[in-house]
Amino acid sequence: MSDLREQIERVVRQVVREVLARGDVLTPAGADQAGRRPLVAANWKMNHTPNTAREYAGGFDPRSDSGVEVALCPPAVLLPVLAAALDPLAGVRLGAQNLHAAPEGAYTGEHSAAMLSEAGADYVILGHSERRCLFGEDDPQIQQKLSRALQAGLWPILCVGESLAERESGATFRVLRSQLTGCLSGLGSPAPDPQGLVVAYEPVWAIGTGRTATSAQAQEALAFIRERLAELFSHGWAARVRLLYGGSATSDNAAELSALPDVDGFLVGGAGLDPDKLSKLIAETASGVARRSDARR
Ligand code: PGA
Prior knowledge:
By secondary structure, this protein is α/β, with parallel strands linked by helices. The protein is built from twelve helices and eight strands.
């Protein structure tokens, strides 16, 4: 009996994933005029265990009717745990935090795109500042990982952002330009589907510090990023790609930030570790996005 139940659940999950994977579900209710549906992605970093992940899944309300797409990005070992524990009808997606650029081979300790995808991931975070600073990843490596992710049908969430010293020395835009060019310019033509690629602006000084970028700083950086993406691809392409803000985003600042013209959601660390906090942040994101849409009418 329980075997049959498991089999049915597996089939339902597979069908929901396939339906969700179709491009047109990225432009349902909740998308703005450019077709950008807000996204809240929670980067769990190296937190949670199989047991606490199951508890999280059991108590998580992803506010499925809010129009906000939700992705949980746990350590790779927890992807199948969450895939099995989340309610398949809630439509919560999963993401990985990194991948290896090679398709397979002798790379002890690494994960391939195909493994992550089969374990349940739709998204993959690439170029996070912790990968850049603590593990020495550079733009050419990130670009190879991006190519591999796209080839494997994973949607990259590319992180860019300046350090405090770079901001204070007036180098913010130079850094953003060089990271975007270094990571994306080799992707060539045809350009990747703009709905299958996300760019997150994460000022390093705001990550895990409780110091959020001001609305003006976030909007200025994200508008700059959209302009650079227009240069690299086209204006139409850049208008459709989703840009996230990351760095001490919480339910207290999500509504204000998501009301900004170029903020299409958040990449959250700390606030995503607790299901209630994340649920509140999703609701605040929906209310900020609604304010933005009202202002455009
Ligand atoms: P934070 O982390 O929300 O805890 O600042 C964000 C991130 O690292 O993506």
